[in-house]
Amino acid sequence: MAGAPDERGPGPAAGEQLQQQHVGCQVFPERLAQGKPQQGFLSSFFTNNQKCQLMLLQTLETNPYVKLLLDAMKHSGCAVNRERHFSCEDCNGNVSGGFDASVSQIVLCQNNICNQAHMNRVVTHELIHAFDHCRAHVDWFTNVRHLACSEVRAANLSGDCSLLNEIFRLHFGLKRHHQTCVRDRAIRSILAVRNISKEVAQKAVDEVFESCFNDHEPFGRIPHNKTYARYAHRDFQNRDRYYSNI
Ligand SMILES: [Zn+2]
Question: Is 207 a catalytic residue?
Answer without folding.
Answer: no
